[in-house]
Amino acid sequence: NAGVTQTPKFQVLKTGQSMTLQCAQDMNHNSMYWYRQDPGMGLRLIYYSASEGTTDKGEVPNGYNVSRLNKREFSLRLESAAPSQTSVYFCASSLDSGNTIYFGEGSWLTVV
Amino acid sequence: GIQVEQSPPDLILQEGANSTLRCNFSDSVNNLQWFHQNPWGQLINLFYIPSGTKQNGRLSATTVATERYSLLYISSSQTTDSGVYFCAVNTGGFKTIFGAGTRLFVKA
Q: Which chain B residues touch A40 with a CB distance below 8 Å?
């Protein structure tokens, strides 16, 4: 039982490049999330997917797109990376809204 | 939106000491969770505690929803307790708001 798995773990991008962060969970959870973590600011919600086939904006959605590919997988795409998107990105899942949240191990992204 | 404030922001303990971390929130919440982020960045859920008291080994948590605060108690601290402790609240729906965290360092 791997829980929440996200890839890649580390990535360096040049400004303007695009990339996709992949996330999968094997807990049969309905809800999935993407957070970013910046120093001194805790975690902020980028996008979430309440259930398969739905996605919604969180607190800081600008510059990102997401896809809920199926119940297991939820990807985050940066179309044109900017230095302000340098951060640690966490994928997470929960059975439903307001339930215990389980996090992946994080993806360290640097945009130069 | 709801404000979540954690205190203290930083805490240094000698191994074996006890500590209390506090989380204040500015509005009614449906649930509250405590997380530990270890020095390698991994986030682990410690408690799901919308109200009342729960205990798990040396850790316990109490949430007084009517007074809008929660406390995390760490007893007989160990070096492995080092890291950042986050409080996170949910007011309904899918948006869980995190506090800025308390950074704990336990000295051997």
A: 100
